[in-house]
Design a protein that fits this description.
- The protein is of the alpha+beta class.
- The protein has a domain of 60 residues: OB fold (Dihydrolipoamide Acetyltransferase, E2P), CATH 2.40.50.
- Helix content is 37%, strand content 46%.
- A five-stranded antiparallel β-sheet has the order 3-2-1-4-5.
């Protein structure tokens, strides 16, 4: 009986360790840019594009149309990129 408890404990431990490692590597792909300012919005080839600026750095990114419509110009918020593409913008 004790062997089964120890085996179950080890299996659960390994399960949660593997789950945490996968989560860690997913977070590694996210790049938190920090507070940015929306300086321009436009449509190009039917896709919404937003220009974000942080001090001297500037990013022109495709973003979901919903965010394009909801975000007014000169809004500050936290920009997050995933693999160099738009992931989220929280104002």
């Amino acid at each position: 009986m004790g062997k089964y408890v120890i085996l179950l404990t080890v299996i659960l431990f390994l399960f949660f360790v593997i789950k945490k490692v996968k989560s860690f590597f997913k977070q590694m792909k996210l790049e938190n840019i920090g507070y940015c300012l929306v300086v321009d919005k436009f449509e190009k080839d039917g896709k919404a594009m937003v220009v974000f600026q942080q001090s001297e750095n500037e990013w022109t990114l495709f973003c979901p149309y919903k965010i394009y419509l909801e975000t007014p110009l000169l809004t500050r918020g936290i920009l997050t990129l995933k693999d160099g593409a738009f992931y989220s913008f929280e104002s």
